[in-house]
Amino acid sequence: MTDQMKFIVKEINQTLGRNYDLIKFDALGEKQLLQLLVDLLVFFKAGEKLDICEDETEHVSIRLLEMLGNVKLRPPSGVDPATFRTQLLAGDARTVHHVLYWLLSNQEQVINTAYLARYLKIPEIPPDVARNNTIQDLLDVYNSLIDEFKDVHKRTRLLQKEKATEIINDIKEMAVERDIVIKKLENVQVHLADVKNKDDLLHESKLLRVQQERAKELKAQYETQQTQLKTASDQLKRYLNVIHGQSAIPKTATDVIKHLQEEIQLNNYLVKEKLPHECNNLQKELNIMQTVAMEQHPTRNDLNGIQEKISNVNAEIEQLVQQKLATSGSQEDKLAPFRQQASVIKRNKDASAAHVHELNATLKEHEATLADVQSQVKQLLGDMVLRGEELKKYVNSLRTKSTVYKRQRANLSTFKVEAGILTRTLQIICTADPTVEMALLNYKKMKIDEEEDIEKDAKSELTKKSFHDLSQLVAQTAQKLSEVRQELQPLADKIKPIKHDFQTVQQQYEQKKRVYEATSINISSQMEPLKNQLKALTDELQIKEGEWKNLRQKIMKAESLQEVVMFEMKNSMQSPRQPSKMESMKRKITDLEDIVRNLEDEQRAISSRQGAVEEQTRLWQNTLDLLRCKLKTRSEPAPRQGRMHITQHSQMLTLS
């Protein structure tokens, strides 16, 4: 816990520029801790600035929980979210310390999450306002922008990860290329050392390179012009085909002029009335969106105020309409029918213009598809296209081929069904009686051998035999086929009861399976609420156990305090009164104060004698050094002879 506190204090001092230590941080109150948490979240840009002391409690709770939701804070495992939320809003020290530790240990994740939450959060809109078509369109645009932002953010993160490695690789490649270029230049300089007229040759080569680049540009320009010419010619052909193929266009000059006048009127209406009206509407919507985007993020109070204003304006409009109706009274508006007719004509005009616009768009699409199909047909068939009787013959041949194909396909499907049934029955028979499989294998081998012999004989005699002999051979094979069918008939008779038994067993199995599935679904549906109830009860039991433990601790503290109080009361009522708890504590305090006072006196005495003691220590140290030197000189062998005179107070060494 102390390491966690040290980490929190260190990171907060570095992040927010505070000057906390462990004692100051531990002494912070509930509101101060919450204000510190809010300041840290504001530093991570998870929300706007709040003042815990001045703002309302409900507003502070909502905004704080919203900020923590923006950074995706989760309660610790084994803690109820509701309890964690209440303790956090109450300013519990342990809970706030846990949140601060999580935020400071995951700063990069928190900053990234808060940044994404600012742009990925969908605003809460009341249902009655969300039903508006304009608001719904704005929400759709907002959701599309959110999806686009997600894609751009993912690409940006990938580029940030790959950017460093790419730059390093580019630098290495550029260094290698630079070395290669330097070597090439050195080689070229060596080769050009003995060449005369170097400058003239370089100038001519430069001009040649410029002309080659110019030729490439002209070639590319020529190719682009050719493609443009081809597209323009195709477009011209398409327009000519459309003009010659339209049967609805009038043929006479007056009809053509009339048709052109109608088109001019329609285009004038579209340009002067319809399109400016649509542009004004779009400009108004754009202005509304810009004002909404420039405003700050609305809160619940702002939305409620706007809703109240809307209701007040609607009520005023209703009152004005009623007043107008009351003032007009029985007076008949003579221009009302004409207004209605004008509005109907305008609506019809707008509808017809929109319909004409849609028809023109569909006509252009059909013309483009027609031209593409015609070009594809020409590429496939060339200029030769079937017409008249040849086309009818070709269609009739296709019809006969399609009928033959359908008939053969139906026969093939029936054969496939029969083959499936026979293979299934054969499998059932083989599982019931394994000897049948062996008999069938022997029969197949025998038939294969017979067929091989027949094929060999037929190949050898086919050239000699006539059509009559071949017909006899076909009759013999048909007779053998009938014999084989007669041999298989008893096996088929045996299969029928087995097949019937299998069908009955299959039906019973399906019935039992349906009953089993129904019972399992019923049991699972009944078990689900029981599991939920059991989980709720276990959670409630854990909460109650925690409350019981807290109450037990409080009761034990209260009982101990009650015992102390009862002892004090009894002691005060006794005649030989013992010293009370307070008196004993005061006595201990006075004793401790005396001890502290004595220690302070000793400290002052020691500090006053510190200089003399240091001087004495230095003298003793010098004495010890001197004695060490004497011992060292006495232990070392004398380099030359001498005599030492030792008296009572001194020593003298005489060298000779």
From TrEMBL:
Q: Compositional bias of type Polar residues: which residue ranges?
A: 647-656
Q: Name one GO molecular function term.
A: tubulin binding
Q: What is the lineage of its organism?
A: Eukaryota, Metazoa, Ecdysozoa, Arthropoda, Hexapoda
Q: Spell out the protein name for this chain.
A: IFT81 calponin homology domain-containing protein
- Coiled-coil regions listed in the entry: 208-235, 356-383, 527-554, 582-609
A single GO cellular-component term on record: ciliary basal body
Q: Which residues form the IFT81 calponin homology domain?
A: 3-120
Please verify whether the record's keywords include Coiled coil. yes
Which superkingdom, per the lineage? Eukaryota
A single GO BP term for this record reads: intraciliary transport
Which terms are listed as keywords in the entry? Cell projection, Cilium, Cilium biogenesis/degradation, Coiled coil
Question: Is Coiled coil one of the keywords UniProt gives this record?
Answer: yes
Stretches for region Disordered: 634-656
Q: Pfam families annotated for this entry?
A: IFT81_CH (PF18383)
Q: Write out the similarity annotation.
A: Belongs to the IFT81 family.
Localization, per the record, is:
Cell projection, Cilium
Organism, per UniProt?
Pieris brassicae
